[in-house]
Amino acid sequence: MGEARLDIARVRGQFPGLSDGLVHAEGPMGTLLPENVVHAITQAMRVPVSPRGGVFPASARAEGLTAGARAALADLTGGVPGGVVLGSSATALTYVMAGALAHTWRPGDEIVVSRLDHDANIRPWIQAAERRGVQVRWAEVDIETGELPDWQYDELLTPRTRLVAVTAASSAIGTRPDVAGIAARAHAVGALVFVDAVHAAAHHAVDRRALGADFLTVSAYKWCGPHVAAVVADPALLADLWPDKLLPAPDRVPDRFEVGGQPYELYAGVAAAVDHLAGLCGEAEGSRRDRLRASMAAVASYEGQLFDWLDQALRAMRHVQVLGSAGDPTPVLSFTVDGMRPRQVTADLARRGICAWDGDRYARELFDALGASEQGGAVGLGLMHYNTAEEVGYVIDAVAALRPR
After folding, report:
1. Global model pTM greater than 0.85
2. Can you give the residue ranges of every domain in the chain?
């Protein structure tokens, strides 16, 4: 059997939001919901659901919805359900993990963060380090290419390094660092590795162990699910950590990391979103994990072809400057237009029916390093598996027509 392909007409038929007739190129900041996710959430809200721990049906439903979400996220990331911590956002969960890990740090210890990362994988670690008297070291971005050279970690890592935080893919410029290589270096000095796969998981199959991630975070709204995130780790590793929590809250793993009331109806949407991804390739067979691998390979191939066209077309325009030039990126780019502020560009694109973001999109350290922050950041375009060649052509024409007013 040849390489699996996406049936784009079938895929688009699953998204009621596409009926607005707009070109949705804002994927890196949040995606559309397919009908099966909407249906799953709605159905979960039609019946009584109470907090877990009771002996009556409504509480049992909460147990089932939680278990279903954890199992789905384990399949998505190559983890195990008992190592899936659920939360409202990757940012919130990273703060929880940073607080728990910081209890194990001592003054003089070190952590390593990168300029490439979303601030959610930078600021929680820096703030925790400041409170514990821990030194922060920075992995720098090549400002010409937007790559994160892995060789620099040979100098950054020491026997005092306790944690390395790094992204699996930049949601601003698409760079995909050699996370496995970085993780191997970190583990060689005894450091833990926290990988932000929030953006990467929307475009490629992810595997926590293959990446060398001790902790891996994902967020469902980046891949057609609701606003629920997860940190995936080895349950034994989680068992050694104690987050701040309420006294009556469970001590067991992973529940001890889940603060406050839980959105059980959204957990139904998480499982449905993973099922959506697994079903994108109609001929895929086997377990859900197997179908996810096949479907995400088809997604990467389809999106890659569209993105190559978009990327090359914008780079050929004299009035457009695309930031970075990383090899094998995810289908997202950031650009500026001569004589126009980023907000002017997105407003002009919006008038033409194109949804795009401007600003730093929480990649503040990256945009500072690239010198883009002073001008209001950049314009971001990102493709998803529901975008079409016709839409990409329309976006290219619209950008080509942009001129200062």
Report:
1. yes
2. 8-33+287-400, 38-276
